[in-house]
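Milestone M4 deliverable, item 7.
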Amino acid sequence: MSRRQPPMVSRMIRQDASALRFARGLSPSLLALAVSAGLTGPALAQTVPQEAPTPEVVVQTAPPQAVEEERVVVNRILVRGNQRIDQTTVLSYLPIQPGDTIDAAVLDVAVRTLTRTQLFADVQLGVQPNGDLIVDIVENPIINQVVFEGNGAISEEKLREEVTLAPRGIYTRARVQEDVGKIVELYRLSGRISATVTPKLVQLEQNRVDIVFEIDEGPETGVRAITFLGNTAFSDGDLQEVMVTKESRWWQIFNNNDNYDPNRLDYDREQLRKFYTNRGYYDFRVLSAIAELAPDDSAFGITITVDEGDRYTFGEVDVVTENDRLNPDFLKLLLPIRTGQLYESDKIEAAVDALTFAAGSAGYAFVEIDPTYRANPDTDTVDVTFNVREGQRVYVDRINIIGNTRTLDNVIRREMMLTEGDAFNRTLLERSRNNLRGLGFFKDVTVAEARGSAPDRSVVNVTVQEQPTGELSVGAGFSSVDSFVVNLGVTERNFRGRGQNVVARVEWGSLRQQIDFRFTEPKFLGRDLRAGFDAFHSRYDLSEYSSYDYRSTGGGVRLSYPLNSYTLLSTRYFLKSDEIIVPNNFCSGVGGGTNALCDQVGSFLNSSAGYTLFVGPRDGPDPPPRRRAGRRGQG
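Output delivered:
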């Protein structure tokens, strides 16, 4: 910050003795106080010349006794220098109002407050003798465009996803430096550790700027060799298969993990630990993982030193809980661990999940399961005790739906078996997750709980990842009967994000034409009723071969509802009009028409109703059920 002395002081000093005493009483450090904040000058390269920074004005400070008396009442606040930002906006950020008594400390806080908004490149505050507070500001420029030059290994789209600067945003030097670090880190993770980024600032009229990131990607740094020290139970090749990082080979043109990435190497250390601990090596450790760059900077050599230790089995396994509603003997039966089995860390995680699920089914959402270990090197066994600590009963505070960019919230919420205010139940939460997965709308579904607004409240976060739900099929063929045949079909299982199913098919040939349309609403009237309607038209033109033309047009309605978890009743009603057309005089006795065909000539209206009962487990919302199932129908 810099302080400049306003010209008002020189005029005050030339006034009479009383005015001079007034000026001395206030001291020059307040009367001439003008605090400037912001950047003293951009460190970025620019394509236009910069103005020389204003030299800092040193103002003499008043004696300690005078400093204590430097307090002035603000009469008015005047804002100067604003172009794009309204004066009321500036005043809303300023922590000073007319009538306030201010001193140097208050002005310093005000300057810092305005600077933190990142709207201003420079802020100066000055107090006039009449009590007017002058706020001189210089606005930060507006970004016109952000340009990337020199990028080839990483697409511009991916770079834009990383940076925070964007057109029509506010330029600050701190944000530019932050984005430079993000771009460099992105290149480092892609194996180009020597990449450099130089930002440039192009100043335009109307206080606008272009930001150009000049990127020198440098060569890609590969992995020359991965060497292990201390391994006897498994070979180097076995351990290299566990790691994500791979050695660079000229034939592995589609491998993106053959470059050096420190974060990936840390992940590989964890993968090695899991590999060994899942095979009985309880006290396995990775002593070091050292990456050495070759003299020509072309590739890294990675050396990993391990201590395998002995192979262990499970010793005594016990469950300890202080909650009377959770029977430790029953919980112990749920554990996938038995004494004498080979020690596996995955079984520990499975045991924790089983205990957490059992406690959640009893209504306790936030159980803390702490497995403690006691290794017995003499017998090569590990004793494990699962300590279950329970909290109070928890209720659902709210349910957050995250990630649904297309599917409506109510489509997801109606599959949830828990609502706000219900007692938390992990079993119902797991069923809700299975219901969402069964829809087929999402690639991944994650249901997690977090603490709510009170200790007995839980927030359920449902995170989904959308996937394509539409299908387009096009087919063409040729046969001796139909000649050229074209098929076109469109299926959408999540129509307009409402969970509705729409199917439209068209088949067109020289003898056969068929149009079919189906619509299904899975939650009719907001209830667990699956309703839909069908419409179709078909024609079989056999006049050239059998002297008749058959046409059928109709539609129907369907309604299905579950009787229980394993039984589904589906009802239907169809109405169609069938018509058979023959040439004139075909049935007059001289046309050669048969009685069987002539009896059916004309138009007939057919109506049918029926039902189908499905019995068996269902994997998804659409009948018929899969796996083993029984079916009985009529009509």
